Automatic annotation (TrEMBL):
EC number assigned by the record: 2.6.1.42
Gene3D superfamilies linked to this entry: 3.30.470.10, D-amino Acid Aminotransferase, subunit A, domain 2 (3.20.10.10)
Keywords for this protein: Amino-acid biosynthesis, Aminotransferase, Branched-chain amino acid biosynthesis, Pyridoxal phosphate, Transferase
Family: Belongs to the class-IV pyridoxal-phosphate-dependent aminotransferase family.
Record protein name field: Branched-chain-amino-acid aminotransferase
Protein function: Acts on leucine, isoleucine and valine.
GO-annotated molecular function: branched-chain-amino-acid transaminase activity
Catalysed reactions listed for this entry: L-leucine + 2-oxoglutarate = 4-methyl-2-oxopentanoate + L-glutamate; L-isoleucine + 2-oxoglutarate = (S)-3-methyl-2-oxopentanoate + L-glutamate; L-valine + 2-oxoglutarate = 3-methyl-2-oxobutanoate + L-glutamate
Co-factor requirement: pyridoxal 5'-phosphate
Length: 365
């Protein structure tokens, strides 16, 4: 099977002016504005991947019987482009995202996009929309690659037609006023995923199921939800869209829940584990109970807690709240380990530190 496709490029005849783009990049928010172009690639059961194109950003026409609209056959990725000081544009570990998209596809009975085509799709976006990658401090261009089953058929089986798209949205610094700890809500009414389910796949359905618990968290003054394992309701899994870490300061140890089949394999998670090992920290991937968190914070053994994912990189967790309890101090500043891991990772991504693991790929050359 051919691993590469030729992209047919149709430039927008109404791209935003330089002034309009500058106005958007000054205050981009997150996921609100989109660049002038998108990538689309078609797949069907007989012909495989074909008709790769870059075209003006705009609505997608779907048959009302398209599989994605009825059975939620959708997967996605999240990956950023970073502008370095010399003006070049880079991305972080795209092959890892490409392989994860393939694993998600397998679980959702969608076709495997070759990793080479995934990486090429990001390069194609930068070839037309490079000017949307801001050079402001901690700004980036967030790519949202996604795939849908779009065969018009109401029978319940994997669609025989699918489409892969990439759209891109400029993102400002996640923490506009410095990295600030957040409060999170322990959900005991709901689980995110179960072993054998779709928790390890990056699919829209997982997010749909997390919206109600997320609303409950917000009603409690928390910005995110923490989910426990669905069987015993004791073991930490992750937040709605971020993995979680505990820091045992005195033991120089970093602890995160082991991948259980229901936890999403975050690329930020894996990168942080590597950076921690590199600096001589002890790294433990194992089961962690919610009692260990509560008692560890109370005894002072757990000195920091943080969440991680591509969008926010690392978010310090100041407080954990749940039905009838609260641990931690939201007013305390972010911890040292949290901040220095965050700094090291972003320094690599923005080209301020050597890329000793070969994680960075240039997109504009
Ligand atoms: C995307 C995602 C993460 C973080 O993954 P990264 O590769 O680090 O961005 C964590 N949990 C869930 C549920 C996710 O969807």
């Amino acid at each position: 099977m051919s691993q590469s496709l030729n992209f047919h490029v149709t430039r927008s005849d109404r791209p935003r002016s330089a002034e309009e783009r500058a106005r958007i990049l000054e205050k981009p928010g997150f996921g609100v504005h989109f660049t002038d172009h998108m990538v689309a690639v078609r797949w069907d059961k007989d012909g495989g991947w074909h008709d790769a194109e870059v075209r003006p950003y705009g609505p997608i026409a779907l048959d009302p019987a398209a599989a994605v609209l009825h059975y939620g056959q959708e997967i996605f990725e999240g990956i950023k482009a970073y502008r370095h000081a010399d003006g070049s544009v880079w991305t972080f570990r795209p092959d890892a995202n490409g392989r994860r998209l393939q694993r998600s596809a397998a679980r959702l009975a969608l076709p495997q996009l070759p990793v080479e085509v995934f990486v090429e799709s990001l390069k194609q976006m930068i070839a037309v929309d490079k000017d949307w990658v801001s050079d402001a401090e901690e700004a980036s261009l967030y790519f949202r690659p996604f795939m849908i089953g779009d065969e018009a058929f109401l029978g319940v089986r994997g669609a025989h037609q699918a489409s892969y798209y990439v759209i891109a949205s400029p993102a400002g610094p996640y923490f506009a006023k410095g990295v600030a700890p957040v409060a999170i809500w322990l959900s005991t009414d709901f689980a995110r995923a179960a072993k054998g389910g779709t928790g390890a796949a990056k699919c829209g359905g997982n997010y749909a199921a997390s919206l109600l618990p997320q609303q409950q968290a917000q009603a409690q003054g928390c910005s995110q939800v923490l989910f426990l394992d669905p069987v015993e309701g004791r073991y930490l899994e992750e937040l709605g869209g971020m993995n979680v870490f505990l820091v045992y300061g005195k033991r120089n140890t970093l602890v995160t829940p082991a991948l259980s089949g229901s936890i999403l394999e975050g690329i930020t998670r894996e990168s942080i584990l590597q950076l921690a090992r590199d600096r001589g920290m002890t790294v433990e991937e194992r089961q962690v109970t919610i009692d260990e968190w509560k008692q560890g914070v109370a005894s002072g053994d757990i000195t920091e807690v943080f969440a991680c994912g591509t969008a926010a990189v690392i978010t310090p967790i100041g407080q954990l709240k749940g039905e009838g309890f609260s641990v931690g101090d939201l007013e305390a500043p972010a911890g040292e380990v949290t901040l220095s891991l965050r700094r090291e990772l972003t320094d690599i991504q923005y080209g301020r530190l050597p890329d000793r693991h070969g994680w960075m790929l240039r997109l504009d050359a």
